[in-house]
Design goal:
Structural class: alpha+beta
Strand order of the largest sheet: 1-2-3-4-6-5
Number of helices: 5
Largest sheet: 6 strands, antiparallel
Order of helices and strands: HHEEEEHEEHH
Length: about 140
Amino acid sequence: MTTKPQTIDEYLAPLPEEKRAALERLRQQIRAAAPEAEECISYGLPAFRLHGRLLVAFGAAVRHCALYPGAHPIAALADELDDYDTSKGTVRYTEANPLSPALVRRLVQARIDEHDSQRSTASSRPSARKAAKPAGADTPEPHP
């Protein structure tokens, strides 16, 4: 029985050299695009978190490598992803047709922008605590 990787290095170690090199390049490109992001393992995959939220993940499969930036970045950059196999939240690529550093940067930035937009929308809404009535506000006062 193999143990699940606890770090990105542990995830990369058993991979064939070509896949390990391709994912290490992707790792460096993500780090360059989001220098404040922290490395982690999420759902068994190498990933980066920013401000406590999952930013992107990546991984290797038998015939391809993949970047998982989420649905919004893929939809936002759909025209630039025509040369790749994509699904709702995944971009699949091969060592023969890698993602360019500029495209990785744009995908990561689109994800950061999405998170920033969600955070600003959430902070502009009144919090449940502020909007809630004080305890007992609906309870009639007892008669003396």
